[in-house]
Amino acid sequence: MSTHMDKDATKNEAPAYQTNFSQGMFMSAVEEKIARVLGEELPTGCEKPEVLIEAARHLCLAKGAKRIRPRLVSLYGEAMEISPLELLDISVAAEMIHAASLLHDDVVDESSLRRGLETVNCKWGNKVAVLAGDLVLSLGFILLNKYTPNIHRTAVRVVDAMTRAAMLEVQARGCLDFKLDGWYFIAEGKTAKLFSWCGQAVGFYVGDEEIAARFEKCGKHLGIAFQMADDLRDLQGSDPGKERFSDIRNFNPSFPILKAASINSDLHQEISQSWKSAELSQDEVTRLGEAVLRTGVADITIEALELEIKQAIDALGPYQDAQGTMEIVNWTKLLLGSVK
Amino acid sequence: MSTHMDKDATKNEAPAYQTNFSQGMFMSAVEEKIARVLGEELPTGCEKPEVLIEAARHLCLAKGAKRIRPRLVSLYGEAMEISPLELLDISVAAEMIHAASLLHDDVVDESSLRRGLETVNCKWGNKVAVLAGDLVLSLGFILLNKYTPNIHRTAVRVVDAMTRAAMLEVQARGCLDFKLDGWYFIAEGKTAKLFSWCGQAVGFYVGDEEIAARFEKCGKHLGIAFQMADDLRDLQGSDPGKERFSDIRNFNPSFPILKAASINSDLHQEISQSWKSAELSQDEVTRLGEAVLRTGVADITIEALELEIKQAIDALGPYQDAQGTMEIVNWTKLLLGSVK
To answer: What is the pLDDT of residue B83?
Structure first.
């Protein structure tokens, strides 16, 4: 098994997974920790329920939560041969930074469903959702207080990038002339930066700047790949429980839509025209979505996706075969499989 | 002039103010820095204005901004005989943490006016206001990256307290049985914690935990005093440009209103009854406001205010007479004068 010290170790077949560490145990610890951080009573001096904490728990403890970011942290930790429990608070902080962004994004997008449940803004209103997001973010940052300063310093920069990307995403709606570097800016801010930080923080934790940079780079391409796949699955209608062509319907210039519009100027014209309306009919949405696919953008997107995946794996270097990070490699295969 | 080394120095008359430091210069530096931090272009890849930055600047650079928090930081810094310019980023961070809370509070309270201008939520909508608050907060935290970790670690705890207080304030509306310790919780979270941090951060900067604790305590009582005075001025109608009795109108259980209701059970009944309506007429608001004052709560509030001020000044200890912190003492006199 590769370690961060013997970088010249021969590539082995993954050994039988015989350690004390169990992903299951770790993820349980994550759930417990989130519940505990959000379990603190809010003194009110008034007979009213602790709505802020209740709302935060509603989102953060929803069964639909995939906990991708804590998993990433634990996988990088495994590769470093440290007990992921040492990284528990980094993992939970990552999840809370993510949750805070969801709470605010749902206010911004006026969404009604999240993780299979009513959104906080729907159930309790915008006031609660805004403040719940602020609370969850603060609590996430507080968890980082125990680690070296580089960890929180990079975390605040991630939130800055996420916020700017969220705003650009709002501004880009309906904008078919939105340049591709704007799409990347959003994908990086929205997803990739936090994925990056998950690995970078682990590198900082073990005190190895080179590893921090390596894992940061891996996370960046992983995040972009994640977004590309997400965009494509929307066109393919392969996400269960999600409405197909929702990017068309919601005027979101996704990666494949932007590509299709740049390939076919008639289609560009058609979508632009449609996107001037306040709302599109189901028929129009389907027609446009199918037209987008007919340009061949699925293959173009898959090609771009494969490139991002390759870059993510290359960034891992010798850790492609390490316990933990090899799971990230496996995950990219699943990601590709979800669109091919 | 007292220094933090010769604590037994004789109390002197304040010497003629002959230093290179000028409050005016420092406040100009603060304005410049805020403008610079918020001057960064947001790449869009799309021909749309940088609304997020524009909104942030609208609030942060409003002429009506009093910059109390940067001033506090500089005054503590003066007492430490350090160039306040070394504390510029702490000052600006304090202002940005404050501004971020205003951006979100205005969404939560659906306010339309702030610092003499239309609120961001009014002018650009809640989406922009929520994200502008997130951005300004991140940028504030990023400014703290250069200092020792205790400074940002305490800052994140302040934001946590501010958020909880903001939520409690929402929940407490209309609640006349709201206990006084709930009022203190709000006053501490809303105002006192950040005032505290302004001084504590300076203590951390000079590496003196005792001073940090002293200035923190001063700020706590200062902030509570500030809120009490604010509440009383609302009843007295002595804030120019602010509508009198707005706490009555908006169902806010302010300090004097809570006191009045606890003194006079008939009045308690009356206000409780009125507060069940969706809206109060001007006549009713005036009637109730004057009834509150007739209970003698102005004197009760002033007494409580004087106690907070005394505790704030006592906390300063030998720094009551130091250049910089003596201005804080002077300011408490002005605060008291604003309600007497």
So the answer is: 86
pLDDT at position A178: 83
Determine if residue B207 is left, alpha or beta; phi over 0 gives left, psi from -120 to 50 gives alpha, anything else beta. left
Instruction: Give how far Cα B274 sits from Cα of A87, A278, B267, B282, Å.
Output: 53, 43, 10, 12
Those residues of chain B that have pLDDT short of 50 are: 1-19, 44-47, 49
Compute the mean pLDDT over every residue in chain A, rounded to the nearest whole number: 90
Report the residue of chain B nearest A180, measured CA to CA: B45
d(Cα B96, Cα B106) in Å, to the nearest integer? 15
Give me the pLDDT at residue B284, please. 96
Among candidates B46, B130, B164 on the partner chain, residue whose Cβ is nearest the Cβ of A182: B46
pLDDT at residue B23, as a whole number? 81
A146 to chain B: nearest residue by CA?
B153
Give the chain B residue whose CA is nearest to the CA of A140.
Answer: B156
How far apart are alpha carbons A88 and A99 in whole angstroms? 16
Interchain CB distance below 8 Å, B157 and A142: yes
CA-closest candidate to residue A212, choices A271, A273, A148, A267? A148
Question: What's the Cα-to-Cα distance from B272 to each of A150, B186, B266, rounded to whole Å?
Answer: 52, 21, 10
pLDDT of residue B208: 97
ipTM computed for the complex: 0.87
Question: What integer is the mean pLDDT of A174-184?
Answer: 90
State pTM to two decimals.
0.88
Of B117, B105, B215, residue with least CA distance to B159: B105
Q: Residue B95 and residue A160: Cα distance in Å, rounded?
A: 17
Give the mean model confidence (pLDDT) for residues A85-102: 97
Q: Which two tokens stand for residue A303?
A: 């090609």
Q: Do B104 and A130 touch (CB under 8 A)?
A: yes
Contacts of A54 in chain B (CB under 8 A): none
How far apart CA A69 and CA A98 sit, in angstroms, is: 8
Among B46, B108, B138, the residue with its CB nearest the CB of A177 is: B46
Alpha helices in chain A (DSSP H): 23-37, 51-60, 68-79, 88-109, 120-124, 126-143, 149-172, 180-187, 193-205, 209-236, 246-249, 255-263, 265-274, 282-294, 297-316, 325-337
- Tell me whether residue B133 is exposed, middle or buried, using C-beta atoms within 10 angstroms of its C-beta: 0 to 12, 13 to 18, 19 or more: buried
Q: Which helix (H) or strand (E) holds B117?
A: strand B117-118
> What integer pLDDT is reported at residue B280 of this predicted model?
95
Which of B125, B164, B59, B121 lies closest to A137 in space, CA to CA?
Answer: B164
Q: Would you call B255 helix, strand, or coil by DSSP?
A: helix
Cβ contact B51–A160 (<8 Å): no
Supply the pLDDT for residue A24: 86
What pairing do the DSSP bridges indicate for beta strands A113-114 and B113-114?
Answer: unpaired
pLDDT at A179 over 60: yes
What SS3 state is found at B114? strand
With the C-alpha atoms ordered B293, B294, B299, B300, is the resulting torsion angle positive or negative? negative
Contact B317, B273 (CB under 8 A): no
How far is Cα B286 from Cα B265, in angstroms, rounded to an integer? Answer: 19
A185-204: per-residue pLDDT in tens? 999 999 999 999 999 999 99
What's the residue count for chain A?
A: 340
Helices (H), A38-148: 51-60, 68-79, 88-109, 120-124, 126-143
pLDDT of residue A62: 93
User: Tens digits of per-residue pLDDT, A19-69?
Assistant: 455 788 899 999 999 999 998 655 544 445 488 889 999 999 998 899 999
